[in-house]
Write a structure and sequence with these properties.
With about 280 residues, the protein is mostly helical. It is built from eleven helices and no strands. α4 runs antiparallel to α5 (about 120-135). The longest helix has 29 residues, at about 145-170. The two termini are about 25 Å apart.
């Protein structure tokens, strides 16, 4: 199935951006984040195995790419888990996503067909200003805040890493559904094993509401990923990437109106600047 560029693609990617920020809010809100991420990953693992079964063989070359990306995804999940233990969503989410897109842009400069143009420079400047604004907005930083900022930046580094690996694989000819299936199954399986090792049978005795929210969060994350893949069949890859970064602003809005975080409103303006920079960078690379 291939979509034509147009309003439907815009709607799909905007919906994916909202869903991505939503599952992060679910993960952030979990009373037990180890258990929450474990259950989220259980959902994505099941979907990944299903995709492997129904898709064409991925081939050893792309399987190695999927394995490398899975390692980076596991690092991303563990770092995100650590970040959400100490940081507000309205600070952690834009920091990690913004850092990821900035580092991806930096990595793209050493790849073919990626000259350093004024649009890249403008995008980097806006992202840096937005990152600084989101970091400093709110009360004076505490030691706990600094830990959260450090882990959020590390999370962004992991995002950039798997974005580059996945981009090289998909653009190099990897079958998208099969590759995505192996990637989800591999990294989600590791996270589930980690949660079982940490929580054991306690995973089976979690409150129903927490279990339902976490499993639902996994479904939402897979749906967000699937909508982006579907939108990318239109060929408008730069526009899809740009629209996807609107999730940064959505994450802060969730912090303001849903989670009621005290400093979230002060982070709205820098988050908008950060989002603008991410959009410019996505369109330029």
């Amino acid at each position: 199935m291939h979509l034509d560029p147009g309003p439907l693609v815009v709607v799909l990617v905007l919906l994916a951006a909202v869903l991505h920020a939503t599952w992060n809010a679910v993960a952030h809100s979990a009373a037990d984040r180890v258990a929450g991420f474990g259950l989220i990953s259980a959902s994505t693992c099941v979907v990944g195995v299903a995709l492997i079964v129904v898709s064409e063989p991925v081939g050893w070359r792309w399987l190695w790419f999927a394995a490398g990306s899975a390692v980076l995804h596991v690092a991303y999940v563990l770092l995100l888990m650590a970040t959400y233990e100490v940081a507000d969503l309205s600070r952690a989410y834009p920091l990690s996503r913004g850092t990821g897109v900035a580092l991806t842009a930096a990595a793209s400069l050493v790849l073919p067909r990626s000259p350093l143009g004024p649009d890249v420079v403008a995008g980097v400047v806006l992202v840096v200003l937005g990152l600084v604004g989101v970091t400093l907005a709110g009360p004076p930083l505490t030691r706990r805040d600094r830990v959260g900022i450090a882990t959020a930046l590390a999370t962004g580094t992991a995002i950039a890493g798997y974005t580059v690996v996945d981009g090289l694989a998909v653009s190099g000819g990897a079958p998208v559904l099969a590759y995505g299936g192996w990637l989800m199954a591999l990294h989600s399986g590791v996270v589930v094993a980690y949660a079982v090792a940490r929580r054991g049978r306690a995973l089976l005795s979690l409150p129903r509401r927490q279990t339902a929210m976490a499993l639902g969060g996994g479904v939402v994350s897979v749906l967000a990923y699937g909508l982006v893949l579907l939108a990318q069949t239109s060929g408008a890859l730069a526009a899809v990437a740009a629209l996807r970064e609107l999730s940064i602003a959505v994450g802060v809005l969730i912090g303001v109106f849903v989670l009621r975080e005290s400093a979230a409103r002060q982070r709205l303006l820098p988050a908008v600047v950060l989002t603008a920079g991410a959009v410019v960078l996505a369109l330029s690379i």
